[in-house]
Specification:
The complex is a heterotrimer of chains A (177), B (441) and C (346).
Chain A: H1 3-49, H2 55-71, H3 73-78, H4 94-129, H5 143-176
Helix pairs in contact in A: 1-2, 1-5, 2-5, 4-5
Chain B: H1 2-16, H2 22-38, H3 46-54, H4 61-74, H5 77-88, H6 95-110, H7 114-131, H8 136-148, H9 157-166, H10 170-198, H11 218-241, H12 247-264, H13 270-303, H14 306-315, H15 321-335, H16 341-358, H17 363-377, H18 385-393, H19 400-423, H20 426-439
Chain C: E1 19-25, H1 34-48, E2 53-58, H2 69-75, E3 80-83, H3 107-116, H4 119-127, E4 132-139, E5 146-148, E6 162-164, H5 167-175, E7 179-180, H6 188-193, E8 199-200, H7 205-211, E9 219-222, E10 231-237, H8 238-243, H9 246-281, E11 285-288, H10 291-311, H11 313-345
Parallel strand pairs in C: 1-2, 1-3, 6-7, 6-8, 9-11
Antiparallel strand pairs in C: 3-10, 4-10, 5-8, 5-9
Classes of the chains: A mainly alpha (177), B mainly alpha (441), C alpha/beta (346).
Residues 108, 111-112, 150, 153-156 of chain B line the site of one sodium ion.
Chain lengths: 177, 441, 346
């Protein structure tokens, strides 16, 4: 096997292994969508049939949706679900597209993720230290759990960004062969 | 430093064209300009803004509506529904596009959450329209424009915020926006009907040979494929409209109803369910990660004093009513190419409103003009939220260029409405005045 | 009108350093009285300091979301904020006493407690771990009880009532059997109009009239037992505050005191005008809560406060100080305020 081909298969193996994280967290987090439907339906039933509402349930609903979009962002990237303005991109040959994905991951996505993780860890940590809960009496406690989803979600996204870069590099080395 | 804010817009447009995902391009441009000019410290404010997106529970309806739409689509119920509608209207050309406008108007009258309406309509209708030979440009343009109607047709958060900023009671503004909203619906219907009449190939009648399920008798189809899902959608919309439940609650019941319908048709397979959950997650994540990118961009725009720049641009506004209206409307329209409607509203309206008042411009009329203009900003390339949402929810073969081309005529119709409003202020004033008289206010 | 704001004066003769601070608020941009007070504060500081301290004012959502004011000032990226302490109940449950609590003191009483009854030093102590210095800057006066589409004739009418009223007031309503609903301010109108909710509480006559709530609800209940005299706060990051020269600190305090009075006066003046408009022009039915209902709510409020006190030590400490001042002050205000109000009726 020539050098470039070996490097290519190594890169692809790395990318696929990294992507497993996004794949399996994504599959697990997707259940939150179903849970969300169930929680809101249950709340509606309680409210309209039994005339008793619960602030905690109403909060749980938006907590679930925040977790859904943050922790699902990496899975979405894996399936190229983050929308692109593909006016130029669609006309490019795969080689050039790979360049864009490589540079995009390294120069756009990763710095953004690093910055968000960097700034949001203290943000979540503060909520932990102060024992922050809902400002509404009867709301949910442990706001730090929800706030931790920001650094966690963007760390997962960064990991999948590395996988995207590795995949793009693999595509670029293919060309040379 | 303010000029940097201007350069930042240029950089955004240029970099968006490379085709890397919009959300991350927005964030990266914010970093690129923000770190050198404002320092890394400044970005400690970013998690606060992201938290603001997470806690915006108005948007909770998005994943729920999307779940309903995806479930109807994955189970094939949506396709059956649309095909039956197509068969029912027989040889009618462009029948599906007219239905889309009608459904968009109904959705608009119940909620105004563009992410939810555009994505749901795209998921339900677009695959079937494309399969039956509808022109991609026409189909996508119609869905984007109809899905955005909710900004103008009450109830709408934009109108509430505008009313507060301009000082018009919300109820008056809701009434004032209704006729222009209906005018827009009318224009959309006339346009798609005329377009498909002139270019029959763009909206062909449903071909019975290409149906998903073999055609039984039409009556049986109507009974099984049309009435239950259409009833579900109408029940969801009706319950919001008549105040039985909030948009979020109704959307959740709609999702449950769609799941039960799928079960009733014996199509609630494990595959369909997991596919529905995962698609819902992907689409929801797409919508909100764009908002995260946009909030980073907005933060840096503020930090660089972009708002002061816009204010300075406005300080040269003409000193009489018509000149002021012309220039301010143009300015808002141009900002709409690049900025999110909330940013525009917050930056521009506080400055424009007192000037308008000073010049004796009717605040109600002015607010409706702004509402039409802001709604247009969802549709104007390159940065139109409706266009992004649609692109992500559309089948893979749809290109952004097709969406851009498809939506342009609708942007034109929005501008026609804006002009009509400028020429006939009664369009905005007549109904609220009538309502006031009837209520004895 | 922002265009008329004085530009920072460029006096070459002054060698003193010029500071440029950011202030973010918990109010919508241009929210009347609230935001006006803040821009007035910035203008006064600028003028009194001869341009040495320039403050850029950002409305809620412009720089950070309204309810992130606390965090933004606490971490110091933004030096100042304007908000109400009860918004931070999730982080600092005790803070609610520094705004208002159900059946607490009115503006006069709370001012006495903060200024001369040890309230402010307690407040400073509670905020210290968060790197925040609190300065009272405004009071809205007694608010209204809210807009209702159902008559509240007796206590049972509260059962299952879908009401939007945040914080402790919501908790009291819930313990009286109501059904509290989370709803952002921008959705109140629609929810009331379409009867998704039965009742909602916003600010007071002036702001409620402006939002047009009289078009969406029939009855306007009083008094605002849940918010009898909310104090607004100016937040200053303590590191920034420590670095401020003494004279500038005095200037900030002086401007805040002026604006504190201005905001209170504006509310009193605008609310009575709006009330007249609501009753005469819009024919709103202004209805008092029945005495029986108020009595029950008051005992629920006491139970809710004691319940919270059992959970948080700081809350308990401030509650005791607050309640003790309130009961002692009540003896006097019964003879002064209340008796005089009675005398006016005769
Ligand atoms: Na709407
Ligand atoms: Na746009």
């Amino acid at each position: 096997m020539p050098d470039y081909a070996r490097r290519r298969s190594r890169l692809l193996r790395l990318a696929n292994r990294l992507s497993l994280v996004a794949e399996y967290t994504g599959r697990a987090v997707a259940w939150l969508a179903l849970l969300l439907v169930a929680v809101v339906c249950y709340d509606v039933a309680m409210r309209y049939v039994f005339h008793s509402g619960s602030i905690a349930l109403q909060e749980l609903a938006w907590h679930l949706y925040a977790l859904l979009f943050l922790l699902g962002a990496a899975y979405t990237l894996k399936y190229d679900g983050h929308v692109r303005v593909d006016i130029v991109y669609q006309r490019l040959v795969p080689h050039t597209r790979a360049w864009i994905d490589l540079l995009g991951a390294l120069l756009f996505l990763l710095p953004l993720c690093v910055l968000i993780v960097w700034t949001s860890v203290p943000f979540a940590y503060q909520a932990f230290v102060y024992g922050e809960g809902s400002p509404d009496v009867g709301g949910l406690p442990y706001r730090y759990v929800l706030k931790s989803a920001i650094p966690l979600g963007f760390a997962l996204l960064a990991l999948e960004g590395v996988a995207q870069a590795a995949r793009a590099l693999a595509a670029l080395s293919e060309r040379r062969g | 430093m303010e000029w940097l804010a201007l350069v930042m817009f240029g950089a955004l447009v240029a970099l968006l064209l490379f085709g890397y995902p919009v959300a991350f391009t927005l964030g990266a441009v914010a970093l690129l300009f923000g770190i050198p000019a404002l320092g890394v410290e400044f970005f400690n404010l970013l998690p606060l803004r992201i938290w603001g997106v997470m806690t915006n529970y108005t948007l909770l309806a998005v994943p729920l509506f999307v779940f309903m739409g995806v479930m109807l689509e994955k189970s094939g119920i949506a396709e059956d529904l649309l095909e039956t509608m197509g068969l029912l209207f027989g040889g009618m050309r462009g029948g599906l596009t007219i239905s889309i406008v009608a459904v968009g108007a109904l959705l608009a009258a119940t909620t105004g959450i563009v992410g939810a309406t555009v994505v749901t309509m795209a998921v339900i209708a677009l695959p079937a329209m494309l399969k039956h030979g509808y022109e991609p440009e026409l189909s996508t343009g119609t869905i984007a424009a109809a899905g955005t109607l909710g900004q103008l047709i009450p109830p709408s958060v934009v109108l509430v915020l505008l009313g507060d900023a301009v000082g018009v009671p919300v109820g008056r503004l809701f009434a004032g926006a209704l006729l222009p909203g209906l005018l827009l619906v009318g224009l959309f219907v006339v346009y798609v009907a005329a377009y498909t009449a002139l270019r029959p190939a763009a909206g062909p009648p449903i071909d019975p040979a290409r149906l998903r399920a073999p055609a039984h008798g039409l009556g049986r189809r109507v009974l099984l494929s049309l009435i239950p899902p259409a009833g579900l959608v109408l029940a969801v919309l009706g319950s919001i409209f008549f105040g039985v439940a909030s948009p979020t609650e109704s959307a959740a019941l709609g999702a449950l109803g769609a799941t039960l319908l799928a079960a009733g048709h014996r199509r609630l397979t494990a595959t369909n369910l997991t596919e529905t959950m995962r698609s819902t997650m992907r689409l929801t994540s797409m919508v909100f990660v764009i908002l995260v990118g946009a909030t980073a961009f907005g933060l840096v725009f503020r930090g660089l004093g972009g708002d002061a720049l816009v204010h300075r641009l406005m300080s040269g506004l003409p000193g009489e009513a018509w000149g002021f209206l012309a220039v301010s409307m143009t300015l808002v329209f141009v900002l709409g190419f690049f900025l999110d409607f909330l940013e525009i509203l917050f930056i521009v309206v506080p400055v424009l409103a007192p000037i308008a008042q000073h010049l004796g411009v009717d605040p109600l009329w002015f607010a409706v003009l702004l509402a039409v203009n802001l709604q247009t900003s969802f549709l104007t390339p390159p940065f139109g939220f409706s266009l992004f949402y649609l692109k992500a929810a559309a089948p893979g073969e749809i290109r952004m260029s097709q969406i851009y081309r498809g939506v342009l005529p609708f942007v034109g119709l929005q501008l026609v409405t804006l002009l009509a409003l400028l020429v006939f202020p009664a369009l905005a004033r007549w109904l609220p005045d009538l309502v006031d008289r009837l209520q004895g206010l | 009108d922002r265009r008329e704001e004085p530009a920072s004066t460029q006096e070459a003769s002054k060698p003193a350093t010029k500071l440029r601070w950011k202030l973010t608020t918990a109010w919508p941009p241009n929210f009347p009285i609230f935001h006006d007070g803040v821009t007035r504060f910035a203008r006064e500081v600028e003028a009194m300091s001869g341009g040495r301290l320039h403050i850029d004012v950002y409305g809620g959502g412009e720089l950070v979301p309204p309810l992130e004011t606390f965090n933004a000032v606490s971490q110091g990226t933004v030096q100042m904020g304007h908000a109400a302490a009860y918004y931070w109940a999730g982080k600092v449950p005790a803070a609610q006493f520094f705004t208002t609590v159900p059946f607490g003191m009115n503006a006069q009483g709370v001012a006495a407690w903060l200024t001369s009854g040890g309230g402010l030093s307690l407040w400073e102590e509670i905020y210290k771990p968060f790197n925040l210095v609190p300065i009272p800057m405004g009071n809205t006066g007694v608010q209204m009880g809210g807009w209702f589409n159902k008559r509240i004739g007796r206590l049972e009418d509260l059962k299952g009532l879908r009401i939007r009223t945040p914080g402790l007031g919501g908790r009291v309503m819930a313990s009286a059997g109501a059904n509290p609903v989370l709803l952002p301010g921008a959705e109140i109108y629609t929810a009331l109009e379409r009867s998704t909710i039965d009742a909602a509480e916003w600010v007071g006559p002036y702001h409620d009239e402006r939002m047009g709530l009289y078009r969406a609800a029939k009855y306007y209940y009083y008094p605002g037992w849940q918010e009898p005299g909310p104090v607004l706060e100016l937040l200053v990051n303590s590191e920034a505050w420590a670095k401020l020269p003494d004279d500038l600190r005095l200037i900030v305090r002086a401007a805040a005191a002026t604006v504190h009075n201005w905001i209170f006066a504006e509310f009193e003046a605008k609310n009575h005008e709006a009330l007249q408009l609501l009753t005469t022009k819009y024919k709103v039915q202004i209805v008092p809560f029945p005495v029986e209902v108020l009595r029950a709510l008051r005992s629920h409020a006491k139970a809710v406060l004691e319940d919270e006190a059992a959970k948080h030590a700081d809350f308990k400490r401030v509650y005791e100080a607050y309640a003790s001042f309130q009961s002692r002050h009540e003896a006097w205000s019964t003879l002064s305020e209340a008796a005089y109000m009675e005398a006016l009726k005769s």
